[in-house]
Amino acid sequence: MFYHDLYLLLGHVHTTPNRYRLQIQEMQRVEWPTEEMGSQPCKVQPWGAHTAPRGVDAPYIWLIRAVFLYKMAEGSREQAAPGSTDSEEDSPNMIVYRKIEDIVTRIQDEKAGGVSIRTVKSFLSKIPSVVSGADIVQWLMKNLNIEDPAEAIHLGSLIAANGYIFPISDHVLTLKDDGTLYRFQSPYFWPSNCWEPENTDYAIYLCKRTMQNKARLELADYEAENLARLQRAFARKWEFIFMQAEAQVKIDRKKDKAERKILDSQERAFWDVHRPVPGCVNTTEMDIRKCRREKNPHRVKKSVYGVPDDGQSQPSPVHVSSQPARKPTREDVQKEISFLNIQLDRHCMKVSKVADSLMSYTEQFMEYDPLASVVEPSNPWISDDATFWDMDACKDPNQQRVKKWGFSLEEALKDPAGRDMFLKFLESEFSSENPGKIFWLAVQDLKRRPLQEVASRAQEIWQEFLAEGAPSSINLDSHSYERTSHNLKDPGRYSYEDAQEHIFKLMKSDSYARFLRSNIYQDLLLARKKPPADPEQGRRTSLEKFTRSVGKSLTGKRLTGLMQSS
Question: Is there a contact between 463 and 439 (Cβ–Cβ < 8 Å)?
């Protein structure tokens, strides 16, 4: 906007009379400041109406200042980015912008089934080129195969947040499924044009709005605060900013009223994207990781398995070394062979198997997930039902807890009731793995001990389970025993990690399978599955028995009396 208007001003220079062209030539001989105004004291002070150079008329001071600002801006841009190209593909978000622009283009194409853009008549005024939010949501659901209205509203809000559509009466860029009126942004202001507006441009825009006495152009509270802050920051060159705002206002007044309304709203939406309302997300900010990838696109990419993934493409000529590549030595080949052998030993799973494992795990724990299914009893923090607390305080586990012990040994040992039941089973069998179970619990307790008690407790566990003549010795392989003894030179919470893992594998392969088949677990599981007996049914059965016995006795007495009478 700033440079566009300067081009318009420069167009007036070539149409001025000859005497003003001579004045501009005189202006070129003036000692111009080379630094940006305000950064350092300049040799030539900023001009006012009474401080113009000799031979320059005061009425055209604003034009000369505009040319001066344009020259300074062009010089600063060339110094900031020497040799840089204005490529549209520099932005990491360009792929997203292209997809959004394709959707917006389809929405605006009325011939291909797009949304109809109309002029809405209100009291004593007309609102040109608008659509309703409900029309946009319906189009998104119909043409993008979206079934949920919330998803369509979310997609429309993302499009609005990037500035492609905007409400005509609100600074917050979001989409609503109602009669709120929206307008499409001009392609000139699209983010794909790689806009990077400076604070000077923002100050000119705010200053221009203060000059126009219209209710729709009044500054919001946060904009007024930004204007005051910018005025303090650019105090030394505020006269130039004010002059540029005046020039833009004069150009805008020559435009048609309807066109001016549309352009004002589009410019406001542009700044709502690049200088958003406090509390809104700035969608123009670049992800630092994307920016680093853009600055170094030829960086070698690492694969999942640790092997450099150079791909099939050839490296850039800029990064090709001028020195010839040396032949690999014998040591290099041996290192590569050993590295490839290590990669062959890696445990790799297919994606299909991983997906099947995740699906089976999800289905197995479905009834225990309150987000996936309705868990009984209900959560006492959500409802007023305290049944969950009563069941948790009960010593006897419910059916869900008992059933969960059969999923894995980890689930059985995670539950205190499951640990006690598993230990009870090992004691009933006089199993040799009973000390291993006690050792596993002791190591778990060691991990939760205070740091000052860890060293002494680690030595106690060694003397009880692993030392020579230990009262509760456990069976360990030589590798785990050596690693554990080496770790005890500097005892810590995880000194027995290898030994604990070995004991866990032994219990999982032998004792846990027998525990699931034992009468202790099966009786407990079946007892929880049986429905409780109905006490009313028991009473009815007893009453029926009593009635039947009384009836039999009365029948017997009647038969005896009849026989005696006969």
Answer: no
280: CB partners within 8 A, 6+ apart: 161, 172, 173
Q: What is the DSSP letter of 490?
A: S
DSSP assigned state of 189: G
The structure tokens listed for 184 are 């499409």
**How remote is the C-alpha of 4 from its chain's centroid?**
38
Q: Between residues 397 and 564, which one has the greater pLDDT?
A: 397
* Paired tokens of 48: 């006012």
**Cβ(88)–Cβ(192) under 8 Å?**
yes
Residue 2 pLDDT exceeds 50: no
> Kind and range of the H or E element at 129?
strand 125-132
Is residue 322 included in any domain, yes or no? no
CA distance from start to end of the chain: 131
Indicate the pairing of strand 165-167 with strand 181-184: antiparallel
How would you label 195-209 residue by residue, b for 16+ Cβ within 10 Å and e otherwise? bebeebbbbbbbbbb
Give me the numbers of helices (H) and strands (E) for the chain, helices first please: 24, 6
Residue with tokens 């059916």: 399
Residues 6+ apart with CB under 8 A from 274: 195, 197, 202, 282, 284
For 154, the enclosing helix (H) or strand (E) is helix 149-161
What pLDDT score was predicted for residue 143? Answer: 93
pLDDT tens digits, 142-175: 999 999 999 999 999 999 999 999 999 889 999 9
**Using one digit for the tens of pLDDT, what is the confidence trace for 528-562?**
555 544 444 444 455 555 556 655 565 555 545 54
Residue 31 · residue 44 · CB < 8 Å = yes
Q: Can you give the CATH number for the domain in which 125 is found?
A: 1.10.10.10
The sign of the torsion formed by the CA atoms of 456, 461, 466, 467 equals: positive
Q: Residue 174 phi/psi, 5° resolution?
A: -150, 160
pLDDT class of 240 with cuts at 50, 70, 90: very high
CB neighbour class for 433 (10 Å; exposed up to 12, middle 13-18, buried from 19): buried
- Could you give the CA distance from residue 122 to residue 133 in angstroms, rounded to a whole number? 18
Q: What distance lies between CA 201 and its chain's CA centroid? A: 32
**131 shares a domain with 13:** no
Q: What is the rounded distance in angstroms from the CA atom of residue 294 to the CA atom of residue 182? A: 35
Asked if residue 500 and residue 439 are part of one domain, the reply reads yes
Residue 153 backbone dihedrals phi, psi, to 5 degrees: -65, -40
Residues 18 and 60 placed together within one structural domain of the fold: yes
Q: Which of 254, 274, 294 is the endpoint of a domain?
A: 274
Residue 10: domain span:
2-76
Look-up: residue for tokens 């435009």? 255
pTM to 2 decimals? Answer: 0.44
- CATH number of the domain that 489 lies in? 1.10.167.10
Work out the burial of residue 101: count CB atoms within 10 Å of its CB; fewer than 13 is exposed, 13-18 middle, 19 or more buried.
middle
